[in-house]
Backbone:
């Protein structure tokens, strides 16, 4: 009998409910080959979550073991949160391996967005950050044709080697592996996936038809992504299952936009400009005057803005202030785990966001 949970890869144990891999002794006795731990069962059937965070050391340990082997590395990133999910020391972690870097969740962009353009941006970003790769692709876990493309590229690059999927938490590694299992008709139960972070807890091995292994790994904990600090319910709000509809605001200097209770954008000077907000539907966007903004936040952070709540704000730390200028060229302010705001026009912006969340300023991705 196997000794690992098929859903999350945790080594099974019958002693402590609050540790990874727990399963009741009597339930375990009835299992044959593949089984799920209690946490995976609850997560899959009742969407009930037991919070277990794996630490970075655990991630590094898995990676070191894999790096010693001659595996094809498939690094999944979330193309909607590129800056927040790229692994900047990928080359150091895998100095010798071939690397396929996959931009997942492309479905979050509208259909009208040109894949080629985003792909160029993606590759350019990797080059600028000195991250080497054998190939890149842009896909969505939810599109059959994309899973076929992913399989085709992996088979072409892997030769006889094993393949491991790595990435930060929540980029869709396990969802993609489930797509591969389904598409190839492999005899495995699906891995556990969820909007909660740290769903996968150990290595999961899937045998491919040629006898090599496909390995799922726990994600690298992402301390600079908003969802790391949120409740399970709010993590779900930030994991949309289909495209994000942009919301356009035409602002005059002296106006403010709140992006939920996460960020505040003060348009301090310039010409009337467009601010296009790409964040999940459930996040409330509110426009007001700069002169009213502080008072508005104090009064309405819990009823109108709502997310994050008081407990989450505590974890997210203080607001940090940024200053951005834009003119001629379209720019994005990216907010890791939330989305981005495209600035079109001319002006100066003071931007506030919780210090723990990674904020970037870039040429517009679309
Ligand atoms: N919109 C969108 N969501 C995805 C995609 N792939 C995965 N997800 C969602 O992202 C969350 C994390 O997925 P999971 O496979 O558990 O990520 P892992 O931590 O990398 O294994 C889940 O809510 C998935 O449904 C995708 O291609 N598009
Ligand atoms: Mg996973």
Residues:
């Amino acid at each position: 009998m196997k000794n690992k949970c098929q859903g999350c890869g945790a080594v099974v144990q019958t002693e402590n409910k609050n540790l990874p891999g727990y399963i009741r002794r009597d339930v375990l006795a009835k299992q044959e080959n593949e089984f799920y731990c209690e946490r995976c069962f609850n997560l899959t059937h009742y969407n009930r979550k037991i919070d277990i965070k794996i630490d970075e050391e655990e991630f590094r340990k898995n990676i070191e073991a894999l790096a010693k082997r001659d595996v094809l590395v498939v690094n999944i990133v979330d193309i909607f949160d590129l800056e927040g999910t790229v692994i900047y020391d990928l080359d150091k972690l895998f100095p010798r391996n071939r690397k396929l870097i996959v931009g997942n969740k492309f479905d979050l962009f509208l259909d009208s967005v040109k894949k080629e353009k985003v792909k160029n941006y993606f590759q350019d970003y990797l080059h600028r950050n000195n991250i080497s790769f054998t190939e890149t692709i842009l896909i969505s876990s939810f599109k059959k044709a994309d899973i076929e493309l992913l399989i085709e590229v992996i088979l072409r690059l892997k030769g006889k080697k094993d393949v491991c999927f790595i990435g930060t938490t929540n980029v869709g590694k396990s969802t993609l592996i489930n797509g591969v299992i389904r598409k190839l008709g492999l005899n495995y139960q699906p891995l556990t996936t969820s909007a909660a972070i740290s769903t996968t807890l150990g290595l999961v091995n899937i045998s491919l038809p040629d006898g090599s292994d496909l390995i799922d790994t726990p994600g690298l904990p992402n301390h600079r992504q908003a969802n790391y600090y949120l409740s399970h319910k709010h993590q779900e709000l930030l994991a949309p299952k289909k495209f994000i509809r942009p919301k356009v605001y035409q602002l005059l200097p002296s106006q403010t936009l709140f992006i939920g209770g996460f960020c505040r954008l003060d348009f301090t000077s310039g010409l009337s400009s467009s601010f296009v907000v790409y964040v999940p539907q459930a996040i409330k966007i509110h426009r007001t005057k700069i002169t009213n903004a502080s008072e508005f936040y104090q009064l309405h952070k819990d009823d109108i803005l709502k997310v994050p709540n008081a407990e989450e704000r505590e974890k997210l730390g203080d607001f940090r202030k940024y200053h951005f200028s834009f003119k001629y060229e379209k720019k994005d302010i990216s907010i890791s785990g939330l989305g981005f705001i495209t600035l079109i026009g001319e002006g100066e912006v003071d931007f506030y966001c919780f210090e723990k969340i990674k904020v970037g300023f870039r040429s517009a991705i679309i």
Summary: The pocket of magnesium ion (ligand 2) is lined by residues 173-174, 199-200 (CB under 6 Å). Residues 62-222 form a domain with the Rossmann fold fold (CATH 3.40.50.300). The longest strand covers residues 263-270. Residues 290-305 form the longest helix (16 residues).
